[in-house]
Design goal:
heterodimer, A: Arc Repressor Mutant, subunit A, 75% helix, B: alpha+beta, globular
């Protein structure tokens, strides 16, 4: 049975204690989604904590949970993904080029951060968040088949490299 | 995390830059003590566009209340009499020359003003322009002067430099039927408990809302630029269009109450993004149009739909507050399907916007 840790953030000390206690995990999660784009990860984390602070100051809540913060990071990330579709297409073209480069040239191990934004996002939602494919499809606004396809491709990239270097 | 094998693929991206944690702690402490977290204090909603668009209109049923002033209705075209026109007199010739010069000057001014406006992502979407001392609907502004939305008259000494759609009259141009604005007519239902909204969304059965959007112009789509948020007493639906050439345009912004009644609808010729929730602390949200690293933004009162004037300098920050775990939505053939946890006891409602 999991225990949901909840922080009383009605005071400055309480809020900062919550921040210090959750920062590492929250940043890590944002970092996984953002890949090599450290600025974006910092923006995500910055925005999430400030929004939580504003929520508390507006009287909406006096408590925070790790789950709330993590969910906020994920939704923010999906938001940005949707609003930057044009960038995404460009990144995917780059990622396709990177795939060839990774598979045939330099022999460097492929990490999550090396995947395209789409691949990385579905990998994190599926295997870090442990989210069912059906729910991922709903949240991302695509079909389950599309999710499965991207997952398979991402796993091929990760495991193919793993086998080659074994 | 059920499958820890994935950890072997984690890289240094999961570790924060040294010093970032302390930097953010300082920012949060400053924000706690009253410093601005992202932009200046929210401006009070200064314009009441309802008063501007329909100053004396009584409240009417939502769907039947377009906020389109009668004066905007185009006059029927009349055929010009056919026949030999008399040679212009000297006075008439001078008048024609004067009118031509004035027309050219107006076009030049419109182009210059257009370049200063925020609509860089929307080719062919007209902004609102007005001659000096003229009036605009909805509190839109022209350089050096602000239109007082309560009176519809120009006030000198304004500092706004943006001319943009008022959101009241011209609205959208790539939707069929065109977006039209409505205002609140009923009380706002009670908000759903946030704990309920953090539950699992219903994945089967009828959705809480099935909302039919207008038909976009051929080649345009709502799929990539639509957003849904939970707001007190209802859901906020933002539908913007991505056009065939990849640019974005037109926004229909509505709040649909949990009882299925459309609380209000606003129309904009830009593709707006919904900004942070809760940040304003006054029951409003921020919507913004990205412009490089900053954004042109305005506040929208969730209860009434009233907006503030556009302001610049807003540091755009995307957010998903208002998007609890229990909110799941999708766009299917111009229909927004919104699911909420069964415990929320909302719907099913089927309706059309605008």
């Amino acid at each position: 049975m999991s225990v949901v840790r909840e922080w009383d953030v009605s005071t400055e000390a309480g809020f900062l204690a919550c921040y210090r206690a959750t920062f590492r995990e929250i940043y890590g999660y944002a970092g996984l989604l953002s890949g090599h784009d450290r600025d974006r990860a910092e923006d995500l984390v910055h925005d999430v904590y400030l929004a939580a602070l504003a929520r508390m100051q507006s009287g909406e809540t006096t408590t925070l949970t790790y789950g709330y913060l993590r969910t906020a990071v994920r939704y923010r990330w999906i938001d940005r993904w949707r609003s930057e579709e044009r960038d995404l297409r460009r990144q995917e073209r780059t990622a396709s080029a990177e795939t060839l480069h990774d598979e045939f040239d330099d022999g460097a191990a492929v990490l999550l951060a090396d995947l395209s934004t789409r691949e990385r996002t579905v990998m994190v939602m599926r295997y870090v968040d442990d989210m069912p494919v059906s729910r991922m499809a709903e949240q991302l606004g695509v079909t389950e088949g599309a999710i499965e396809s991207v997952l398979a491709r991402a796993l091929r990239r990760l495991r193919g490299e793993e086998m080659r270097h074994a | 995390m059920r499958e820890p094998w994935v950890r072997q693929y984690f890289g240094p991206e999961a570790n924060a830059r040294p010093g970032f944690e302390d930097e953010l702690a300082d920012d949060l402490a400053a924000a706690w003590r009253g410093a601005s977290p992202g932009h200046g204090a929210p401006a009070a909603s200064s314009d009441d566009l309802w008063a501007v668009t329909r100053p004396d209109a009584p409240l009417e049923p939502v769907a039947a209340t377009p906020h389109r002033p009668a004066a905007e209705e185009p006059a029927p075209l009349q055929r010009r009499p056919v026949g030999a026109r008399p040679a212009p007199t000297g006075g008439r010739r001078g008048l024609r020359v004067g009118l031509a010069v004035a027309a050219v000057a107006a076009v030049v001014i419109a182009v210059v003003v257009r370049q200063q406006s925020d609509d860089s992502t929307t080719p062919g979407t007209p902004g609102v322009t007005a001659p000096s001392g003229g009036t605009l609907p909805g509190g839109a502004t022209v350089p050096g002067q602000t239109i007082d939305p309560s009176t519809g008259t120009a006030a000198s000494g304004g500092t706004d430099t943006t001319v943009d759609e008022s959101g009241s009259a011209q609205g959208t141009q790539y939707m069929n039927p065109a977006c039209f604005e409505t205002r609140p007519t009923t009380a706002i239902p009670a908000a759903i408990d946030s704990a309920v909204l953090e539950g699992s969304a219903a994945t089967e059965g009828e959705p809480a809302f099935r909302i039919q959007l207008p038909t976009p112009q051929e080649g345009a789509t709502f799929a990539g630029d639509t957003d849904v948020r939970v707001v007190p007493g209802g859901v906020l639906v933002k539908a913007s269009l991505t056009l065939a050439d990849g640019t974005t345009s037109d926004t229909m912004l509505s709040v649909v109450n949990n009882d299925g009644v459309v609380r209000w609808t606003r129309c904009f010729s830009n593709a707006y993004t919904i900004g942070p929730f809760g940040e304003n602390g006054d029951g409003s949200i921020t919507i913004w149009v990205a412009r490089n690293t900053t954004a042109l933004a305005r506040y929208v009162d969730l209860a009434t739909g009233n907006t503030s004037d556009l302001f610049s300098g807003y540091t755009a920050a995307t957010t998903t507050d208002g998007a609890p775990t229990g909110l799941v939505w999708s766009v299917e053939n111009n229909t927004v399907v919104i699911r909420l946890p069964e415990a929320a006891a909302v719907g099913p409602h089927t309706l059309s916007l605008p």
